[in-house]
Design a protein that fits this description.
single chain; alpha/beta; 13 helices
Length: about 525
């Protein structure tokens, strides 16, 4: 068996430049320059609560090719206009748009590890059109509040389309090369039951805001003409979805905001936030407005702002393997020339892309949840999950030699009803965004702009979207939630096996039960 690298953050993160690496880029240099400009200030905030832990003196380039250590930028001494918790895409987008609107503001981003360490640097690289949540749940919630649930979800869908356009426009304007390719999303059915679900999804798409220009059904031949998936019986194609390298996107955005004067403090782990302050392991930081942008890590900090709390959101594992670079003769047989984002209609679905350097990155849930909301650290993947992903890759493209180069794991934030939420408390001036449920790369841009609108007290189309102040309820206490999450995935695995072995025409009753139990049914 080919030896592969396991963990060390992600293939994306390992192979993109970062501050302290030997391979320098303009983006990395910009972050370094901004850090150096701020390094001389002391790390104290006398009027805010004191941190309990001693400051860390250095950090190591997690997942980088070198063991370079640098002194982290000092925390600011004065009151900040905006303090952002989390150096992922939500936090960086918030810093970007805030610095554009208020170039005179003092803005600080506090990151526990390094920029992109969480889901922003570990995801499958999809700028997806998919709403971060269950459309029917959002619609029902709005209707219960005497609004038009259908129109609210349609507006949400249009906002997601706009967020993709705006993201690509920023990448172009700021010169960020994230290997972006707007090749769409091809979702493939390999069983008749899977195709039945795709047809139902298509009807839901048209109901909830897609046009026939945005999404269309494909025959087996049309599907395989795009990507030659074995046993494809048909598919569905979403026009606007865009493949990106998530590490290049995240680090490129970090370099842009650093060049605009935003202070990015890595290795500054926040333990608690309150009105006007954030407590870190290196001291406390004062700020007029505090935004928590921690997604799956939201439960790791204390505070009584809406949207925070240990059972508001749980971290669900999603694992990825990436192949070595594949030869041209393999690509000639597979196709995939448009770099479409590829997924399937199985209950234990996978997501994949053809990377810019000629690999296949394919991900799925595998071992979905660690007891008591554990997070994956550097991201090592268990052998069972790697084997599952290898098997799925072989089922999509049998007969090819596709050695694995790297495996890694990250976590997505999932609420009890699988719907994201945006919150802002005007009295404490604390905002929270979390619960993207795996559809976060696009949603981060929209969430950041929504948080800033609410912080400014503006009423906009974004602040009217149904994820604003959405109540998802609480997850069950342990061990109930561990048992529930794992039982749901085992039901889905059994349903996939049943449908595949019998070439079933209809979705398994087991899967229907599991979907309703989990709150995924639409």
């Amino acid at each position: 068996m080919t030896t592969y690298r396991n963990g060390e953050v992600s293939h994306w993160m390992r192979n993109s430049d970062r501050p302290g690496s030997s391979a320098r880029s303009e983006a990395a240099a910009a972050v370094d320059a901004a850090a150096a400009a701020n390094a001389g200030e002391a790390a104290d905030a006398a009027e805010a609560p004191r941190a309990a832990e001693a400051p860390q003196a250095s950090r190591t380039a997690a997942g980088g090719g070198d063991d370079a250590s640098t002194t982290p930028p000092a925390l600011p001494t004065g009151n900040q206009d905006l303090v952002i918790i989390g150096g992922g895409l939500t936090g960086l987008w918030a810093a970007y748009y805030a610095s554009l609107e208020h170039p005179d503001w003092a803005i600080t981003v506090l990151e526990a590890e390094e920029v992109g360490y969480g889901a922003s640097g570990r995801n499958g690289g999809w700028l997806s059109t998919l709403i971060p949540g269950n459309r029917a749940v959002y619609a029902k919630s709005v209707t219960a509040a005497r609004g038009s649930g259908l129109e609210a979800v349609r507006a949400f869908q249009q906002a997601m389309f706009t967020a993709i356009d705006e993201t690509l426009a920023v990448l172009d304007a700021e010169g960020i090369d994230a290997h972006q390719a707007q090749g769409g999303n091809l979702k493939v059915a390999q069983t008749p039951a899977g195709m039945e679900r795709i047809r139902a999804t298509y009807q839901g798409d048209l109901t909830y805001g897609y046009s026939t220009d945005d999404v269309r059904l494909l025959s087996a031949a049309e599907t395989r003409a795009r990507v030659n998936v074995d046993n494809a019986v048909g598919g569905i194609f979403y026009e606007r979805t865009t493949a990106v390298d998530p590490a290049l996107l995240t680090r490129g955005l970090a370099a842009v905001v650093a060049a605009r004067g935003v202070r990015i403090c890595e290795n500054a782990r926040v333990s608690r936030i309150g009105a006007g302050y954030a407590v870190t392991n290196r001291g406390a930081v004062r700020g007029t407005t505090i935004l928590s942008c921690l997604e799956a890590y939201s439960g790791t900090i204390g505070g009584d702002a809406p949207g925070l709390g240990a059972r508001q959101v749980i971290p669900v594992n999603s694992s990825i393997i990436v192949t070595e670079q594949l030869p041209e003769e393999t690509w000639a047989r597979i196709g995939w020339e448009g770099r479409e984002c590829l997924s399937d209609s199985a209950h234990t679905f996978v997501y994949a892309q053809r990377t810019a350097d000629g690999r296949i990155a394919i991900g799925g849930r595998g071992s979905p949840y660690a007891f008591n909301s554990g997070t994956p650290g550097s991201g090592a993947v268990d052998e069972r999950t790697v084997a599952q992903l290898r098997h799925k890759l072989g089922a999509l493209f049998p007969g090819f030699d596709m050695p694995i180069a790297h495996a890694w794991r990250g976590v997505i934030g999932v609420t009890r009803d699988w719907c994201a939420g945006i919150y802002f408390d005007p009295h404490q001036r604390i905002g929270v965004a979390r619960g993207y449920a795996g559809h976060g790369v696009t949603a981060t841009q929209l969430a950041a702009r929504t948080l800033l609108d609410r912080a400014e007290g503006r009423t906009t189309s974004r602040t009217e979207l149904p994820w604003n102040d959405h109540d998802s309820g609480l997850w069950e206490p342990e061990p109930v939630r561990w048992l529930g999450v794992h039982a749901m995935y085992r039901l889905f695995e059994a349903a996939d096996g049943w449908e595949h072995s019998r070439r079933a025409e209809r979705t398994s009753l087991i899967a229907r039960f599991g979907s309703r139990l989990a709150g995924l049914h639409e």
